[in-house]
């Protein structure tokens, strides 16, 4: 018979004890700072500036290779034409005319989009109406409605406002309605518990929660309206004898002042960049990012 094994042989091995002294603050190794180049490239504005400089250099190089100012003026010639247009006041006056019409059409489009989406989230008929109208008119280019606008409103501001409202209304309505649909049901129930309904429920509950989608729709609507306005002015020229940037570009193209054409295009791009970064980025920073709705 086998002898019973001692009970101590079944015990697990014991790790040896040891003491570890806590690290003192002076013992902490400081993290090495990032190189200057990496710190600079972490700045978004610097990266965008470098991209712009590369594009300008490519433009100037292409102009020098082509060596024909009638087809492609260089950056220096375009800058000179731009400065002359600003100093003479002509470019500023054309810009003011375009922006005046643009802001009116844009605000009308925003108003109609808000009313349509508010009706869509409140009633089934409104939802069906929004779905049908956006399916019909959103794929339709705004400039394609210009002949009809000229027939209805004549050669003037009314035609421009008509096509601008069409350009803004549908993308903004779609983005806003999508944002409303994504609002959590708990927030909707909170609003109903407080007795909110109709327009008050939309403005106090749905709009703040759907603000990122609404802001995206405002950006898209602005871009659509801006390019629609320039295209419309290029088609029928001056409005009531006083044209905007599109007319400025069209007129100088007819007179073969290509440097002024590029100056007008540069003004269109500059205004687009200013509105994008100074208006929409600021609005996003003081609303959705500050409130934690978007990171």
Automatic annotation (TrEMBL):
The keyword Chaperone does not apply. CDD domains: TM_PBP2. The keyword 4Fe-4S does not apply. Its main location: membrane. Keywords: Cell membrane, Membrane, Transmembrane, Transmembrane helix, Transport. It holds the Pfam family BPD_transp_1. Belongs to the binding-protein-dependent transport system permease family. This is Aliphatic sulfonates transport permease protein SsuC.
């Amino acid at each position: 018979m086998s002898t019973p094994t001692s009970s101590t042989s079944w015990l697990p091995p014991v790790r040896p004890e040891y003491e570890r002294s806590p690290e003192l603050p002076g013992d902490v190794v400081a993290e090495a700072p990032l190189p200057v180049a990496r710190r600079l490239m972490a700045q978004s504005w610097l990266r965008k500036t470098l991209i712009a400089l590369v594009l300008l250099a490519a433009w100037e190089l292409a102009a020098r290779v082509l060596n024909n100012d009638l087809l492609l003026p260089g950056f220096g010639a375009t800058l000179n034409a731009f400065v002359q247009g600003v100093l003479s006041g002509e470019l500023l006056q054309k810009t003011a005319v375009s922006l005046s019409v643009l802001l009116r059409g844009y605000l009308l489009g925003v108003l109609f989009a808000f009313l349509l989406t508010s009706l869509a989230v409140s009633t089934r008929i409104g939802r069906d109406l929004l779905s049908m109208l956006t399916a019909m008119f959103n794929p339709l280019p705004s400039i394609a409605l210009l002949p009809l606008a000229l027939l209805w409103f004549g050669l003037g501001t009314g035609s421009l406002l008509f096509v601008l409202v069409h350009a803004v209304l549908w993308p903004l309505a779609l983005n806003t309605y999508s944002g409303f649909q994504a609002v959590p049901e708990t927030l909707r129930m909170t609003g109903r518990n407080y007795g909110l309904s109709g327009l008050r429920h939309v403005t106090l509950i749905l709009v703040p929660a759907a603000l990122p989608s609404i802001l995206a729709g405002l950006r898209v609507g602005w871009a659509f309206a801006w390019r629609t306005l320039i295209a419309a002015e290029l088609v029928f020229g001056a409005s009531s004898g006083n044209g905007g940037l599109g007319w400025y570009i069209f007129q100088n193209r007819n007179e073969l002042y290509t440097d002024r054409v590029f100056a007008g295009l540069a003004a269109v791009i500059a205004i687009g960049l200013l509105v994008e970064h100074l208006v929409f980025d600021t609005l996003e920073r003081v609303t959705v990012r500050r409130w934690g709705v978007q990171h």
